[in-house]
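User: structure tokens for this one?
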Amino acid sequence: NNILPEIDKMIGHGLITLEVAHVIKYE
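Assistant:
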């Protein structure tokens, strides 16, 4: 699925934090 690269991109741009990414990934 394409969500993880999108999350990685958002983290890279500082749009979301690692904590938020963790929540999104395991939701």
